Amino acid sequence: MKHWSLLALSLASVTLLAETCPTPKVQKAPAAESAKASAKPETVIETEPRLSSVKPLKIEEVPKEGCDLCTLSKNNSIHFQVVGQGVAPVNTVSPAQAMALAKRAAIADAYRQLGEKICGVRVEGRDLIRNMMISRSTVRTQIDAMIRNARILDTKFKDGLCEVEMEVTLDGKEWYAKLSR
Amino acid sequence: MVRKTLPLTLLLLCSLAAEEYYISYTLITKDLLAVEESLKISRAMTPLHGRKTPLCRFETESGERFERWARNNRTRLAECLLAHTASIRSYSRNEGLLHEKDLLILTTRTIPVQVDFNDGLVTIEKIQ
């Protein structure tokens, strides 16, 4: 009889415990997500590497006409055209003298520009640093050139400024060997 | 006979009348201002021989001496000489993004030339 009573008591306590303990709430995931989660990640073995499908980049070719115009070769010629500027000095005897001197200066400036283009410029830069700061920055440029057969196309005077338009043509047959040294 | 030899004689006389000189030209500008210009002409002390290349030809009113003509027509003569050969030396200096000095020397080499005054024309030829 005791055995039966003890068994009944234990069963009742178990049921009581089961009712009092809160069961964890599990949120139901959507069907698709749950399917994805449950599914194993796919392993894809590629038979051919993907790089083989990438096409090589095409390098755009420089148009030949433009290149012929900008680079001197044995078979072509280059045309240079510049505008030189000169200023009339203030202390002159007459306006004619001022104009003549302005034109001289403009011619010299035009020759300088042609020299820059044909023979290049030597540039020298100097920075003086004191106490970790630049205290002086100097740039010096130098040109040493010889120009032959330059032509003056036009001369303009305006407000004390003279502008001389000048041109020179470099023939590759004559100058390519000398300038390419 | 005289008719045949006359043009030849005149041509010979003209060539004998031609004078030979050495010419050089220098122009110095500072900051786009012409500060010094020199045109040096010297008569050749000995006769010059060689191939002649025409440099330029100008119109003139009277048959004056070349030295005087060159003094009065300095610009035209300088342009002619510079068109033939011009040597440029330029020195520029910038300090802290400011332009400071600009010196430009434009020169022509001293070249021997033959000058002819004929029929209101001055013909200058380079002797090589």
Description:
The complex is a heterodimer of chains A (181) and B (128). With 181 residues, chain A is an alpha+beta fold. Chain A contains 5 helices and 5 strands. In chain A, β4 and β5 form a beta hairpin. Chain A starts with a helix and ends with a helix. Chain B has helices at residues 2-17, 66-72, 74-84; strands spanning 19-30, 33-43, 52-59, 85-95, 98-118, 121-127. In chain B, strands 1, 2, 3, 4, 5 and 6 form a 6-stranded antiparallel sheet that branches. In chain B, β1 and β2 (33-43) form a beta hairpin. The radius of gyration of chain B is 19 Å and the shape is elongated. Chain B starts with a helix and ends with a strand. In chain B, 20% of the residues are buried. Chains A and B meet through β1, α4 and β3 of A and β2, α3 and β4 of B.
Strands, helices and their partners?
The complex is a heterodimer of chains A (181) and B (128).
Chain A: H1 2-20, H2 31-38, H3 64-70, E1 77-87, H4 95-119, E2 122-130, E3 133-148, E4 151-158, E5 161-171, H5 172-179
Antiparallel strand pairs in A: 1-5, 2-3, 4-5
Chain B: H1 2-17, E1 19-30, E2 33-43, E3 52-59, H2 66-72, H3 74-84, E4 85-95, E5 98-118, E6 121-127
Antiparallel strand pairs in B: 1-2, 1-5, 3-6, 4-5, 5-6
Indicate the radius of gyration of chain A in whole angstroms: 45 Å
Order of helices and strands of chain B: HEEEHHEEE
Please tell me what the overall shape of chain B is. Answer: elongated
Task: Find the count of extended strands of chain A (DSSP E, 2+ residues).
Answer: 5
Strand content of chain A: 25-35%
Query: Which residues of chain B form runs of ≥5 with pLDDT under 50?
Result: 10-16
Count of DSSP-assigned helices of chain B: 3
The biggest sheet of chain A amounts to: 3 strands, antiparallel
Number of strands of chain B: 6
